[in-house]
Amino acid sequence: MMELEQLFLKRQSTRKYCDKPVTDEELEKICRMGALAPSAKNSQPWKMFAVNGEKAKEFAPCVQMFGANKWTSACPAFIAIELNRGKLAEKISEIYTFADFSGNDIGLLTAYITLAAEDMGLQTCILGIRDEKKIAKFLGEPEGSKFPLVIAVGHAEEGYPVRTKDRKPFEDVFKLIK
Q: Partner of 59 at 20 to 30 A CA spacing, among 27, 37, 50, 77?
């Protein structure tokens, strides 16, 4: 298991995967770790769908809108995240707070998934370009289902460089108030 800071420094968006398969057990473990993510009122407004092997090749066109993400044709696995808001307490809370926390919750889930994968020696790329209608149909979910993102999962191609994090100076993004 990696030291936390090293894990954060190593995780990056990978867009070239080798043909080594991702096992069903690896995908399940990644999703189990992701499911530990916190969410507002413990609503867990998500459902995760792991798409693996030959099905992943059939799924790739769902994230290739407008000619983007052609590299996903070689991706061995995907995790599609469905926004699944169903708890009454969450809906009532929104009426009084005017706040929808589901975006935050999906973001936390995504961070947990990508870091769990990296810790297991797998790489990921978070895909925002996607065809939600195609995804819903592919996964057998009702029309109108929301899929805010899809995560590509696989083993990086040999020699794929680990890039140095290019971040704003810390002083520009942090201020301590005492």
A: 37
In this prediction the pTM is 0.91
> Is the CB of residue 50 less than 8 Å from the CB of residue 99?
no
Look up the CATH number of domain 4-173. 3.40.109.10
Q: Where are the domains of the chain?
A: 4-173
Q: What tokens appear for 62 in the block? A: 């769902």
Query: Going residue by residue through the chain (178 aa), what tens digit of pLDDT does each one get?
Result: 669 999 999 999 999 999 999 999 999 999 999 999 999 889 899 999 999 999 999 999 999 999 999 999 999 999 999 999 765 555 666 666 667 888 999 999 999 999 999 999 999 999 999 999 999 999 999 999 999 999 999 999 999 999 999 999 999 999 999 9
